[in-house]
């Protein structure tokens, strides 16, 4: 099997590891990739946002499956271009990708499908924002309508901060912002693989969004994750499929825009029951690292089945009993004033820790061949263990071996078996 993987972050590095580990994968082409992925496949220096370039590459190299990692190419229609050229694609078309591209659209779909979610107001001017904040009350939840790389949400008890974030969102392209009711209770991430009609859930994970220990600081793309979640109700993945994912997939099919790819269900287990916080249309980072670390079934087979509409013919997924923990190393100043370019050392020492490995996210090689930080979330360490505590200890042993001036990481990832509430 020849596979084309689009993306250059930690999510794509984790996908590349799992794809390459399958003996059926003969070639793995990665556009554009990062230094950590170079040993897993062939890095191709093209723009993953260029649909025609991706089509030309896929046809020239006889690609059997295209896997699109980031949300931006999906929303821009790269998956659609590949699919129209006859290439099986794991990832939704432009219209279906609006489940992430527009939170207002996602709310409309959920309303039509009867999916439980937070009450929300879609606002197009500051007066409406102010009225919605007053109506729904504190803590205030203010969300950018469009793509924001996981950093478009502000949860605060400060009215002025909430209003200011609303103003900034209105100034962005599209000019819409969502004000939502605050959802109490722990949050859970659940990935669902979809082929337009059938839905197969993966195992649940927990993501830590805030920048600093104790759930403080601004929201980020994610500072760490762990799986499994022993505290969630039995049968949660199956319940999410029944109550959330399947109704959404059915509604998208009814609208003539079938959803094929990964439906990321961000959930809150509230005192009033299960609620959807948000949808994404691709694997989440860093949850992908811990979920795929535990998957024992063939990832290429699973993704190809989704791309070709044959998920209902796949055997049940198999999972390792081991736990997995991922901790993210962030660049100096991330997420507010990220400073890149610093040299990263300690790679060999970190990789020598048993049952731990590095995932590259924001790295590149400079002119001297040194590995340097090129993004906000630079590296993450994923470790496996017989339980969460064991995996956590190995992950922290490895990340402590890394050095990047001014960098930071949270010291409390998976320290408690309760999920963060914001």
Automatic annotation (TrEMBL):
Catalytic reaction(s) noted: 5-phospho-beta-D-ribosylamine + glycine + ATP = N(1)-(5-phospho-beta-D-ribosyl)glycinamide + ADP + phosphate + H(+)
EC number: 6.3.4.13
GO biological process: 'de novo' IMP biosynthetic process; purine nucleobase biosynthetic process
Pathway note: Purine metabolism; IMP biosynthesis via de novo pathway; N(1)-(5-phospho-D-ribosyl)glycinamide from 5-phospho-alpha-D-ribose 1-diphosphate: step 2/2
Ranges of residues in domain ATP-grasp: 107-308
SMART domains: GARS_A, GARS_C
Pfam families according to UniProt: GARS_A, GARS_C, GARS_N
Membrane-traversing stretches: none
PROSITE patterns: ATP_GRASP, GARS
Keyword terms of this UniProt record: ATP-binding, Ligase, Nucleotide-binding, Purine biosynthesis
Matching Gene3D superfamilies: 3.40.50.20, ATP-grasp fold, A domain (3.30.1490.20), ATP-grasp fold, B domain (3.30.470.20), Phosphoribosylglycinamide synthetase, C-terminal domain (3.90.600.10)
GO MF terms, alphabetically ordered: ATP binding; metal ion binding; phosphoribosylamine-glycine ligase activity
Cofactor(s), by name: Mg(2+); Mn(2+)
Catalytic class of the enzyme: ligase
Family classification: Belongs to the GARS family.
NCBIfam families reported in the protein's UniProt record: purD (TIGR00877)
Protein name: Phosphoribosylamine--glycine ligase
Biological source species: Boudabousia tangfeifanii
Gene: purD
């Amino acid at each position: 099997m020849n596979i084309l993987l689009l993306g250059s972050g930690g999510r794509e590095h984790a996908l590349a590891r799992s794809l390459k580990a399958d003996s059926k994968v003969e070639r793995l082409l990665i556009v554009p990739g990062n230094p950590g992925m170079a040993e897993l496949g062939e890095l191709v220096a093209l723009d993953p946002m260029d649909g025609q370039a991706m089509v030309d590459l896929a046809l020239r190299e006889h690609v059997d499956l295209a896997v699109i990692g980031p949300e931006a190419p999906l929303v821009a229609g790269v998956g659609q271009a590949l699919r129209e050229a006859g290439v099986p694609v794991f990832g939704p078309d432009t219209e279906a990708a609006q489940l992430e591209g527009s939170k207002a659209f996602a709310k409309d779909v959920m309303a039509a499908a009867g999916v439980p979610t937070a009450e929300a107001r879609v606002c197009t001017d500051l007066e409406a924002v102010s009225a919605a904040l007053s109506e729904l009350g504190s803590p205030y939840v203010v969300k950018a309508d469009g793509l924001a790389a996981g950093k478009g949400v502000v949860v605060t008890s400060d009215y002025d901060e909430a209003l200011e974030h609303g103003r900034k969102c209105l100034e962005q392209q599209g000019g819409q912002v969502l004000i939502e009711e605050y959802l109490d209770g722990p949050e859970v991430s659940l990935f669902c693989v979809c082929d337009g009609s059938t839905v197969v859930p993966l195992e649940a994970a927990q993501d830590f969004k805030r920048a600093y220990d104790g759930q403080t600081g601004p929201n980020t793309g994610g500072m760490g994750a762990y799986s499994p979640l022993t505290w969630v109700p039995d049968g949660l993945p199956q319940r999410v499929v029944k109550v959330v994912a399947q109704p959404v997939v059915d509604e998208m099919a009814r609208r003539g825009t079938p959803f094929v790819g990964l439906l990321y269900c961000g959930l809150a287990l509230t005192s009033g029951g299960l609620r959807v916080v948000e949808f994404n249309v691709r694997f989440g980072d860093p949850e992908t690292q811990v979920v795929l670390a535990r998957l024992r079934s063939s990832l290429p087979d699973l993704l190809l089945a989704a791309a070709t509409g044959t998920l209902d013919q796949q055997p049940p997924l198999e999972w390792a009993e081991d736990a997995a923990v991922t901790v993210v190393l962030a660049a100096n100043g991330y997420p507010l004033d990220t400073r890149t370019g610093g040299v990263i050392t300690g790679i060999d020492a970190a990789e020598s820790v048993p049952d731990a490995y590095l995932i590259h996210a924001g790295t590149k090689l400079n002119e001297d061949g040194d590995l340097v930080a090129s993004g906000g979330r630079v590296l993450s360490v994923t470790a496996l263990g017989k339980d969460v505590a064991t995996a956590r200890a190995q992950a922290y042993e490895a990340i402590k071996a890394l050095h990047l001036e001014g960098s930071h990481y949270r010291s409390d990832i998976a320290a408690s078996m309760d999920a963060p509430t914001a």
